[in-house]
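Good morning,

Attaching, inline, the backbone tokens for the sequence recovery test we're adding to the shared suite. The designed sequence is right after.
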């Protein structure tokens, strides 16, 4: 059985764990290593289950403990070469990833990592580089796209292929516009290389999911410019306008900023004629 847990999602630190009975992938490592070890113990998980680390981009809230985790577990870190360079230059990453544990990936190229088939894809964001991941295992298609400036045609296709989807719903546009952020920061967030609003996230989901979708998690919500129930209401309302009922046609959850979600089981999607 494939399983998924979020240990934190937002500017305070992002870290996710996707695992089978025999293999596991950490996606981003922006949660402190001591805290991460505690979370693993609390949920009866073993860090020895982690075989690979995937990184989306080089901002500190996604990579600040990646070197420490890689060294401690002696597991490779997979991301693009540009992101590896960005991590090395990031002063917030106190322990760098050893050269022999760095693995470079290319967007659009499929990789087999243990039990998983992993395909990185481009995500617009104002980092050195940014990618999402389409991950296939045990009859499940799981995709994650965080820190999204805008949704490209390629990303729309990946949303349509997903059975389980983690996607950013960073801010409510009105909260951001009327909020305390300086104008330059508001422009950055709302740009096509910034972050995805609740409305744009909802539209991308509603226009591209198929009947094979089972569960969607909203990630990287802003603490200042969003609220979990507001994000849920926006996505639920837009989905309903397309005839899609959250809670019936699919499950919808909000990933918490600083606390784990609990473990979700990801069952394979079977065709009715099977």
């Amino acid at each position: 059985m494939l399983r998924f847990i979020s240990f934190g999602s937002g500017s305070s630190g992002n870290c996710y764990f996707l695992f089978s009975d025999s293999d596991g992938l950490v996606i981003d490592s922006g949660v402190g290593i001591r805290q991460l070890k505690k979370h693993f113990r609390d949920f009866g998980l073993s860090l020895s289950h982690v075989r690979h680390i995937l990184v989306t981009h080089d901002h500190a809230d996604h990579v600040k403990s990646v070197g420490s985790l890689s060294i401690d577990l002696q597991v490779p870190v997979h991301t693009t070469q540009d992101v590896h360079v960005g991590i090395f230059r990031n002063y917030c990453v106190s322990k760098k990833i050893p050269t022999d544990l760095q693995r470079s990936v290319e967007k659009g190229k499929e990789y087999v990592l243990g039990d998983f088939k992993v395909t990185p894809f481009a995500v617009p964001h104002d980092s050195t580089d940014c990618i999402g991941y389409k991950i296939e295992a045990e009859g499940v298609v799981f995709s994650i796209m965080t820190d999204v400036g805008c949704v490209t045609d390629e990303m729309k296709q990946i949303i349509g292929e997903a059975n389980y989807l983690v996607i950013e719903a960073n801010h409510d546009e009105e909260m951001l516009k009327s909020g305390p952020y300086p104008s330059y920061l508001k422009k950055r967030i709302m740009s096509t290389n910034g972050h995805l609003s609740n409305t744009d996230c909802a539209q991308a989901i509603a226009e591209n999911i198929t009947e094979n979708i089972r569960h969607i998690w909203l990630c990287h919500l802003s603490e200042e410019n969003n609220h979990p129930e507001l994000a849920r209401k926006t996505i639920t309302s837009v989905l309903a306008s397309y005839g899609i009922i959250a809670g019936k046609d699919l499950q919808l959850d909000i990933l918490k900023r600083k606390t784990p979600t609990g473990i979700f089981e990801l069952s394979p999607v079977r065709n009715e004629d099977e």
